[in-house]
Amino acid sequence: MDKLLEHANLENLTGLWQLMGATQVTEELQQSISWPRRCWQHPDQQAAEWSEIIEHIPANYLFPVWRAGEASVALEQALRRQGLEVGLEQLAMVLPLDTDTPSPDHPRLDVRLIESHEQAEQWSSLCGRAFGYTLDAEVIDQLRQQPDVDVLWASLNGEPIATAILYRTGPVTGIHQVGVPPELQGQGIARELMLMLLERARSAGAEYVCLQASVAGEPLYHKLGFQPQFRIRSYRRG
C-alpha cells in the first residue's frame, strides 16, 4: 500500500502540471508551457543514460528527482556534474482521511471557489505574494475550469488572504499552493485553512489527501497527522 500511495502522490502532482499546460519534449520528458516551469520524467520512468535528459532541461525550469535509490543517486550526481543545483526541496506526505482531524474552534475564514478571469488574476497575485514568485494568471484561469480541480481562496472580513488548490485523482485529493502572504503569517490562518480543506476533501469522497511540503510547511503538516513518504529534490541550472 505504501508504494501505491507514493505513486498516487506523484501521479496527482504530475497530473496537475499536465492540466496547467505541458508539452512532450522527448520520449522521456515533459515540460510546462509556462508556469510552473517544470521539466519532468514520468514517475515510473528510469532512464539508463542521463545526458540527453539533462541537455533538454531549460534554463529557469525545475527538474524534480523522485524518491531515493541507486538510480536517483546516479541521476543527481549527473545533474551536479552538469552544473545544476538544488533549487527546491520538498517532502511528499499523505494523510488517510479515516484519521480524526479537529475542526476549527471558531472558524474565521470563508473559503470559496474563484469564478472568473478577474478573480484568477487576483488569486495569482495573492499566491505570488505568499510564495515570492510570479504566477501565470492564464494558467490559473484555465485550471479553475477543469472538472476535478478546485481553485480556492480564503477570505477574512471579505478580504482574500490565502490560496489553495485541490485536485482529485481517484480516491486521492492533492492539496497544492496553500499560501498565506508573509505579513499575515503566524496567525493560524494556514492551519484553519488546512482543516477546512481536509473537510472539503472528505466530503467529496476522498480516502487520502497528499501534498508536497516545503521545509517551512512540514511542522504544520506533521501536527495535522500527515505521514512522510519521500523527498523530492528539484534541480535547476545555476
TrEMBL record:
One function term, GO molecular function aspect: acyltransferase activity, transferring groups other than amino-acyl groups
InterPro entries found in the cross-reference section: Acyl_CoA_acyltransferase, Bact_Acetyltransf, GNAT_dom
Signal peptide, first to last residue: none
Residue ranges of domain N-acetyltransferase in the record: 109-238
Keywords, ordered alphabetically: Acyltransferase, Transferase
Any single Pfam family the record assigns to this protein: Acetyltransf_1
Keyword Transferase listed: yes
Keyword Acyltransferase carried by entry: yes
Domain of life: Bacteria
Protein name, entry field: Acetyltransferase (GNAT) domain-containing protein
